[in-house]
Description:
Blueprint lengths: L4 H6 L3 H5 L3 H14 L18 H17 L4 H8 L2 H4 L1 E11 L2 E10 L4 E5 L5 E6 L12 E2 L2 E5 L3 E5 L13
Antiparallel strand pairs: 1-2, 1-7, 3-4, 4-6, 5-6
Amino acid sequence: VAIDDVERDFGxxxxxxxxxxxxxxxAVETLKTITLSEExxxxxxxxxxxxxxxxxxxxxxxxIERCFNExxxxxxxxxxxxxxxxxxxxxxxxxxxxxxGGKLFLHKLKTKHxxxxxxxxxxxxxxxxxxxxxxxxxxxxxxxxxxGIPVVPRERFWCLKFxxxxxxxxxxxx
Length: 174
C-alpha cells in the first residue's frame, strides 16, 4: 500500500530514485546539516530552581545526558541517519540498553534500514511492534513472529516520522 500519491503513481522506490538527483540530495543534506549544526543539549524541563519539581527534572536531564554521552553510537551520527525520515516519511532505530546501578542505560542505537523493517499494526494503525527482516543477531529468537519475521516490541525503538495521516506510522515524505 502506497503512503502517498507520488509513491502510488511512481512506485515504492520513487523517493530513493529522487535522492540520486544532486539538487534534491543537496537540499536534503543541507537541511539535515543545518538541523544538526548545534551540539545536542539536554536541559531540565523545569528551569525555576524554586519549583518543587526542579530537583527531579534536573536529575532526569542529567540521566539522559549521561545516556547520550556514554552511548556507544555517537548521537550526531544516529540523528543524521534518522533524519532520512524527512524524505522517507519515517525511520526507526533500535535502543539497546545495559543495566547499571539498578537503572537501564542506553548502550547503543542501531538504525534500521527501512527495507529491513515493517510496522506491525492492528486494524486501527496502533503500532504493535516492528517486524525485522534479516535480523542481525540471535537476540530475537524468543520473540513472537509473523511468517518467520521477528516482531520486536515498539518500546525498543526510537521512531521518527513526518506528517502521518490517519494514524499511519509510516509518515509521508516532506
